[in-house]
């Protein structure tokens, strides 16, 4: 790769809470060449994968997933937090450190048999992405693959993705 | 325009609260050709405007602003709700029907003199976009223009934008 994208990721200690090292991608997004290179790198392995839709998870996932969809020439489907989508939704829960959270997707966003590329900024424990895969399956669609900008390999989120093709641009 | 984009916008009565007619753009986003046409239409008037960065407002603004930035080949700057950005921020308040809310932008996201294109899905009263313009000015950058997918003309948000060039794709 011509650009060292990891150089544009900023480490923020103790965010959003003490003990967490946050990987801040905003410096990467704000440099036109790095941003475009990241989007291209996330889309590239799926150019000929027969992808019908790109779905991404609120909110940082949208910053990468929407341009990936535009570049692939396919539609974009937002996976949102509960209560944000105005029409009929599917819902999937996932575990937090303490308690549970849930995400939603419109019931008419995907058609049965659609091949869906899932996008997020970071793969950590994989809980949110696994819930998003559940939403895709509730629609009768299938997961063509998962593409993330950053994989935190030590958390082994990869194991939660049920063998779906995973593409990672930056690995820690 | 070859595609009638307004046909892909779904009206949802009484969302998010009674008496509000919500313009749901998710059917437009999920059709590849309509999505790409919308992004192209939002970017087109600013192709030769010397834009250095595209900034967009959480969260629907990201679905349009990030692909506009990728197509223009410039960096993307997220304007977020309070507490979401991990580094030093500027803050701007705006009025809600009852009370106030605020948005933030990283202090190092823009450089003095940068020309910034602001993107959002809907221009209603203009309060959020006016606050985003304030953030751009706090950075010492200038607003090259504002591009929205939908303008609710009856609410006259246009008057809040201080004469910045405004481009609207669908007008109600």
How would you describe the overall organization of this protein?
By secondary structure, chain A is of the alpha/beta class. Chain A has one domain: Rossmann fold (3-Layer(aba) Sandwich), CATH 3.40.50. The first copy, chain A, is built from four helices and nine strands. The first copy, chain A, has helices at residues 26-29, 32-43, 60-72, 127-138, and strands spanning 10-13, 21-24, 53-57, 75-81, 89-95, 100-106, 115-123, 142-151, 166-171. Chain A has a seven-stranded mixed sheet with strand order 5-6-4-3-7-8-9, sandwiched between helices. In chain A, helix 2 (32-43) crosses helix 3 (60-72). The longest helix of chain A is centred in the middle third of the chain and has 13 residues, at 60-72. Chains A and B meet through helix 1, helix 2, helix 3 and strand 4 of A and helix 1, helix 2, helix 3 and strand 4 of B.
Average pLDDT of chain A: 97
List the chains of the largest interface with their residue counts. Answer: A-B, 44 and 44 residues
Going by CATH, the architecture of chain A would be 3-Layer(aba) Sandwich
* CATH class type of chain A: Alpha Beta
Number of strands of chain A: 9
- Proportion of residues in helical segments of chain A: 10-25%
Oligomer: homodimer
Separation of the first and last Cα atoms of chain A: 17 Å
Q: How many distinct folded domains of chain A?
A: 1
Report Rg of chain A.
15 Å
Write a concise keyword list for the protein shown above:
9 strands; globular; two-stranded antiparallel sheet; 172 residues; alpha/beta; homodimer; Rossmann fold; seven-stranded mixed beta sheet
